[in-house]
Amino acid sequence: MTHLSSFNISVDFPLYHSDNRSLKKSVLGAAGRFGVDRNRRPVVQALRDISFTLRSGDRLGLIGANGSGKTTLLRALSGIYQPSNGTLSIEGRLTSLLDSTLGMNMDLTGRENIRLRGLFLGMSRPDNARLESDVESFAEIGQFIDLPVRNYSSGMVVRLAFAMATAAQPEILLMDEWIMAGDTAFLEKAKQRVEAMVRHADILVLASHSSAIIAQWCNRVIWLEHGRIMADGRPLDVLSEYLPPELFKEVTASIRITPEIGEVGLAEHLQANDG
Amino acid sequence: MADLNGTSRAMQATRRQPLFTMSADRGWEQRFGMAKQDVVEGFVLWRLSWALGVADIRLRYRGSILGPFWLTLSTAVMIGSMGILYADLFHMDIHTYLPYLGVSLILWNFLGSLVLDAGSCFTGAEGLIKGTRMPFTVHALRSVVRDTIVFAHNVVVIFLLVVLLHVPVSLYSLLAIPGLLLWLIDGFALAFLFGAFCSRFRDVPQIIGSVMQIAFFITPVMWKTNALGSHPGAELLIRLNPFYYLLEVVRGPLLGEDVTIGMVAKALVVSAVLILVSALAFARTRGRLAYWM
Fold first, then answer.
1. Are strands A172-175 and A94-97 parallel, antiparallel or unpaired?
2. Are residues A156 and A44 located together in one domain of the fold?
3. Which residues have a Cβ under 8 Å from the Cβ of B199 and sit 6 or more positions away?
4. Do A252 and A182 share a domain, yes or no?
5. Distances (CA, A) of B218 to A230, B215, B228
6. Fewer beta carbons within 10 angstroms: which end of chain B, N or C?
7. Which of chain B's residues have a Cβ under 8 Å away from the Cβ of A7?
């Protein structure tokens, strides 16, 4: 069974490259996110006691201000940062798209990067060839596939990275908000692909500042503030708390225009509010 | 479902449904478990390390006509000019000195690059480390692959020296191969040790650079050990020099000189200590490396 669970995960960033002594003084006085670890070294408490469990079909949206810990949480969920407390448990093939370069080598061509990706996924030669043609057709960047990635527009890099991340059919997909750099046509295509993926009972975690995207793509939202979970629930419920009323109205209005999940969710939400 | 006992059991079962758990640091047993798992997973991905290393070299010479054979050419030019100059300065027969200098320099360049590149194997892969969970072993192997490819291009110069200067060769020279394999293992271990150190302390690469420069002069690379006959203090300097033993177990066979059992044993001891220290360092730092990028 595909699942992704976070048990009380906390992440501390050590502050190595700063003046320890003066910092310690200010840290001990200041409330908020600075603290000291077991060895009394100053740290930034990036995440605190994050717990949730995602199962097949869950599409989690992460919202919160800059520096609230969204990207750090995605990295911790990817297994990149070993937590300073707590346990991460994952079952299923996981792919993370944390920045648009996706660990690509900008001097290599798109095709060469796809091959490296295939090797990373442990693919055999025929599988790798299939990956290559799948990415090529989905990314739709034409002849650019044989040019160094350095020469791509940012939108093209996003297309290639997204195609590469999803072509191998991950069971768990973690995405940061850079995906919004794609144009509308591409976003629609990307959404369809993710939906197809989630229909096959998989998991999506998406961090974004676009409430409309969150409301349309996700069926669960976690609101992070100062590295802690402020709210966890259905998208419109959490968004109504998170957004100022006038912005929330704009979001619900925009969802009304593009229905699907939005319409149902909105109706439920309005009913809940009436009652 | 979840495994809360703190040990990580990734890549269990089949590739289709890998189970991965990662807990906060829980002491040495967990650290060594994760380090071992990293090495195993990294070697499974050896084709990726190879492709990354090859790509590094190809990119360095992309667009140039000779490509990586510039390595061969520049080494040949350096050894040719240095050999002629130094043979004259040291009053030595060029037919014996030039092969000695050529083999020594090419081997030293390989050994030196293994040490120097070890330091940047993780900091140079920052994008990959922060972008996806990948065994750190992949980055360590990549730097060894890169240095080995450069060395392979320079080996051509050794063949040229042998042919042009009619150096007598026999099957005995093949005994250099186990020595070179030992170097590869040492280079891999060094990548973990220095890679971690250089990620945490950004001054270390400069220090390693300076130390290697000194090591080049106090190791018999350009000069022969018999030049020290009358300096007992200097002899001690060689005897405590780990590079000397490592160099000798490869250079001896290539030059048709005897390699004593004692020399081989010392090279093995140096390597064993290095591997042990590296394993400790990697187990201790593995979970912190991503934070240091």
1. parallel
2. no
3. B122, B123, B285, B289, B292, B293
4. yes
5. 63, 5, 11
6. N
7. 2, 4
Q: Does B128 touch chain A (CB under 8 A)?
A: yes
Longest alpha-carbon distance in chain A: 60
Rg (CA), chain B: 21
| One domain, residues A43 and A157 | no
Cα B260 from Cα B41, distance rounded (Å): 38
Look at B18 and A91 and tell me if their CB atoms are within 8 Å. Answer: yes
User: Which tens digits make up the pLDDT trace of B195-221?
Assistant: 999 998 889 999 999 999 999 998 888
- DSSP symbol at B91: T
DSSP letter, residue A109: B
**Residues of B whose CB is below 8 A from A96:** 131-133
Each residue's pLDDT tens digit, B37-89: 999 999 999 999 999 999 999 998 888 888 888 889 999 999 989 888 888 88
Q: Which two tokens stand for residue A169?
A: 């059919």
Same domain, A164 and A136: yes
**How do beta strands B19-23 and A3-14 pair?**
unpaired
What is the number of H-type helices and E-type strands within chain A?
Answer: 10, 10
* CA–CA separation, B138 and A122 (whole Å): 13
Among A168, A202, A225, give the residue marking a domain's end. Answer: A168
> What pTM, to 2 d.p., does this model score?
0.86
Would you list the domain boundaries of chain B?
61-292
Same domain, A154 and A173: no
Choose among A116, A65, A88: nearest CA to A243.
A65
Which candidate from B22, B134, B291 shows the least CB-CB separation from A13?
B291
Q: Are residues A125 and A207 in the same domain?
A: no
Q: How far is A117 from chain B (nearest CA, A)?
A: 9
Identify each DSSP E strand in A37-194 by its residue range.
Answer: 42-55, 59-63, 85-91, 94-97, 172-175
State the residue range of the domain holding A133: 96-168
Q: CA–CA distance from A208 to each of A66, A78, A170, A235 (Å)?
A: 10, 17, 20, 13
